[in-house]
Amino acid sequence: MAEQKKLVEAITPMERDFAQWYTDIVKKAELMAYTGVRGCMAVEPYGWAIWENIQKILDARFKELGHQNVAMPLLIPESLLEKEKDHVKGFAPEVAWVTMGGNEKLPERLCIRPTSETLFCDHFARVVHSYRDLPKLYNQWCSVVRWEKTTRPFLRTAEFFWQEGHTIHETAQEAQAETERMLNVYADFCERELAMPVIKGRKTESEKFAGAVATYTIEAMMHDGKALQSGTSHYFGDGFSRAFGVTFQGRDNSVCYPFQTSWGFSTRIIGGIIMTHGDDSGLVLPPAVAPVQVVVVPVAQHKPGVLEKAHELEQRLKGRFRVKMDDSDQTPGWKFAQYEMKGVPLRLEIGPKDIAKDQCVLVRRPDRAKLPTPLDGLEDAVAEQLDQVRRILYDRALKRREDMTYDAHTLDEMKEIADTRPGFVRAMWCGDPACEAKIKEVAGLSSRCIPFEQEHIADTCVCCGRPAKELVYWGKAY
Amino acid sequence: MAEQKKLVEAITPMERDFAQWYTDIVKKAELMAYTGVRGCMAVEPYGWAIWENIQKILDARFKELGHQNVAMPLLIPESLLEKEKDHVKGFAPEVAWVTMGGNEKLPERLCIRPTSETLFCDHFARVVHSYRDLPKLYNQWCSVVRWEKTTRPFLRTAEFFWQEGHTIHETAQEAQAETERMLNVYADFCERELAMPVIKGRKTESEKFAGAVATYTIEAMMHDGKALQSGTSHYFGDGFSRAFGVTFQGRDNSVCYPFQTSWGFSTRIIGGIIMTHGDDSGLVLPPAVAPVQVVVVPVAQHKPGVLEKAHELEQRLKGRFRVKMDDSDQTPGWKFAQYEMKGVPLRLEIGPKDIAKDQCVLVRRPDRAKLPTPLDGLEDAVAEQLDQVRRILYDRALKRREDMTYDAHTLDEMKEIADTRPGFVRAMWCGDPACEAKIKEVAGLSSRCIPFEQEHIADTCVCCGRPAKELVYWGKAY
Predict the structure, then answer these.
(1) Are residues A113 and A73 in the same domain?
(2) In angstroms, what separates the C-alpha of A381 from chain B's closest C-alpha?
(3) Whole-prediction pTM value?
(4) What pLDDT is attached to residue A294?
(5) Per-residue pLDDT at A38
(6) In sequence order, which residues have a C-beta less than 8 Å from that of residue A211 and are 6 or more positions away?
(7) Domain count for chain B
(8) Which residues of B fall within a CB distance of 8 Å from A69?
(9) Do B349 and B266 sit in the same domain of this protein?
(10) Is B209 helix (H, G, I), strand (E, B) or coil?
(11) In the predicted model, is pLDDT for residue B4 greater than 60?
(12) Which one, of A354, A199, A384, A386, lies nearest residue A284 by Cα?
């Protein structure tokens, strides 16, 4: 390693080729590797450690709210998939089918789950009998498979990792509240922990999940102005219950259909982190999910006392932060570039001059601010600077989104923006899917969401001029 | 719930029907449910919580030893599976084949991983170049699918959950040491955390993993005297490296083949916990992995001050233990039976008389010992009693194993033991697979392992009378 990697390999500048810049980071930061399996990724240790940190935080939040983890089967019999008509229409074209078990042809095809509503419904039908069995607030962490034609690391892969929450409730109101509550959990997680500002809203009819009454979404803006749908939450009404024959005895002894929700958050968010915070030096990780939060780099480490002091600081910080010490024989310059590329939020430099002054130098990854810091009280200073990193990342991303969001009042204006300025376009809509389709066709923009925070920026639909119903965010999307 | 379950449903006594007793516990303790998918289980919240506790402890141990988690694909192209001849022979007959993606027939069949050696080798071939890249100590938590004909909850299911470690090393010695180290991790985990004594040893040639040079195993004895293979660790030599073309540049610049290992531990251990510690009242859980370690049951909870005191104790214990408080309107008797059935290691009863004496009563699940305990210092008393539970469970299981292990010197004797007394049989073996096969045929016993702790109990093979090479444990197995 030492000799092979004397220079940290250069990353293609974002301005020159955004897609290549993205791929370079994925590869050089060793987040994932290609495999011999079409469209499937091998998530490498550094990439998986980010996902594990995401899992830990989200899982704790789910459990605090009363959710329980379970594990449903990987496979769905075709007859089960077919029970809900909209659902099967949406997913059947993109599933992988198991047709043989060993050397025998199966009597019925099984698909690898593309999502697990059907399996949870089958389970609910077995275990839900009375209103006393409700609600059930279930979640599972797993992978799913969707036979995508074109794939990109993290953003779109045949197999991806996620959590899928599935809940079942006595009343529509309760299920509706759960749907919104979980969207808020995702939004809060993205904004607080990942430093990614998001727009919360509802999907239009044509963009909603197959089988849902309503789909809620959080939409984030990437460096290139494109949208990333970062988490979704679905309200099913009692449609799935009816399709799967899930019933319960109500408080008045009548037979009732329960109301359901589902909500999911996936490894595509790692693509979102890269494209929200990364720069031309590489990855930039929000401290909450960074596998290494602080890297300790000794300077002039052959000088007496330097390594000892560096180890001492590493030990001091270890209990409270994820710390890595690099005392390899690479040059400090190489190490600086290497851990910048890996997106480590904070670098701690310690050399003879620092030791003489009883200080070290903290360097923040996003703005490279160099901060001489007294060793006395170092732990609190590190905590403070990690928080600063988070704030800088959030503020930057929010400013970018604000700078790259435009209001449009006519279709011509929309098209002009779409052609010349990347970003989101806000425009009023009459609610007619025909207008939505025309905007897509003419301006190349899809509806991202109908934001919860509505504004009235015009009286008429941007497309047809009829009375407008609501404000919509439009954009190009990953 | 309240009205429906006035009585905790009875569990079939172990003596009457062991298999039914097992199934009753799985079902009534709500560990898993059957599904509409052949041979696949739905692991319910209580069962999954046990697995999560197992995962947490093992994962921390793996990481302490330098292992990193990754995620390889779920699917294996047929051509990749076929690269190692013994391996494909062992697994191809029991895999599920994906032949269609959406509506299109795939150009090459893909199987759902039955284990992932082939995928790790494919990855290693891409990322290992120099001795400096070694070792790689990887692990993944996932599910695998084996198309088993007959299935039993946890013990044998088409899909099951596990971790599979895969490591690759510069030298045979290092890989060999890793194989033994990980077997020891499993053994230590079983004995210390699960209170399950195990025999550590090597599998015979005919029982080893498809493609391995050597397979090590830990074997535990169940209530009924049958063996459960509870964890295995495989040494591959450089066989997989050669088959998959994994090479590295050695220290002397020559092209070398690295040495590999793999090791796995699965949800079948939950079946092992049930059949090692359970009794006719239900499940008995070792405290380290019990979802609820202490259940607080208020007695005469309508009396003033009882619920307040119970809640106060719950709060006190919460920071240190997994505690559940049941202040539902069920009777204390129902609650006692219910949490015994669920295997909660410790029950804390608190009623007016206890409060008057500034005490509570702790009841240990395995021996039902009732221990009046001063509230002052309660936390330490609970910790002490949880440890007692662990010791009682371990000692009981060990005594049972010792009582049910027999030495045999002739095949007749072996057959007589096998026909009349359930348990393990220790007997000397010449090393010839023909004798192993004959013992299986005549006495119905398979070789469980060649224990690391050898004893010389006779000079000649129990079967053929030729000079004996080693002591072997024989038994019937799950």
Answers:
(1) yes
(2) 28
(3) 0.96
(4) 98
(5) 85
(6) A84, A86, A87, A90, A117, A236, A239, A240
(7) 3
(8) 45, 48-49, 52
(9) no
(10) coil
(11) no
(12) A386
